[in-house]
Design goal:
165 residues, MIP, membrane, 6 helices, Aquaporin NIP1-1-like, transmembrane, mainly alpha, 0% strand, transmembrane helix
Length: 165
């Protein structure tokens, strides 16, 4: 937990620097920074929040299972997470911009000085990430309890899986 503040600062710094770089590369064009904005004609604030919570929820569920869980196959975690980001962007991109990460929205907003509706892109992904991680932890604990009640040691299952791969 002590690394979280440093991680947040690094994410925000990277987002701001990337946004400044895009603006510079495209001759100061504000649209070049890929500002996250909802589709103005069809999306209400409630829809943006619901979509961003849902997109981030599924992303965090995949990250928890593929990258953070010791039982996951690390070599495939990048593919699983990348495919989830791609699918989320494909499904939610036109509707909300598919931010899924507050830093992804804060950097461009700072560069173009446009903070209208930014709060939704901060609050919703945090809620979605916490919900996704909480569900994954709950399911993981339930699985471990089921194996314990059945007299199965989780280490034996993992060693058998690794032996067959």
């Amino acid at each position: 937990m002590t690394q979280v503040p440093l991680y947040v600062v690094a994410q925000l710094a990277g987002s701001v620097l990337a946004s400044f770089s895009l603006r510079w590369l495209f001759d100061g064009e504000p649209s070049a920074v890929m500002l996250t904005l909802p589709s103005p004609a069809t999306t209400s604030n409630v829809n943006v929040i619901a979509w961003e919570i849902t997109l981030t929820f599924f992303l965090m569920l995949v990250i928890s299972g593929a990258a953070a869980d010791s039982r996951g196959i690390k070599e495939l975690s990048g593919l699983a997470v990348g495919a989830t980001v791609f699918f989320n962007a494909l499904v939610g991109g036109k509707i909300t911009g598919a931010s899924m990460n507050p830093a992804r929205s804060i950097g461009p907003a700072i560069v173009v000085h446009r903070f209208h509706k930014l709060w939704m892109y901060i609050v919703a992904p945090v809620i979605g990430a916490v919900a996704g991680a909480t569900l994954y932890n709950f399911l993981s604990v339930q699985e471990q309890l089921s194996m314990k009640n059945a007299g199965i040691k989780p280490d034996r299952i993992k060693s058998k899986i690794n032996a067959t791969c």
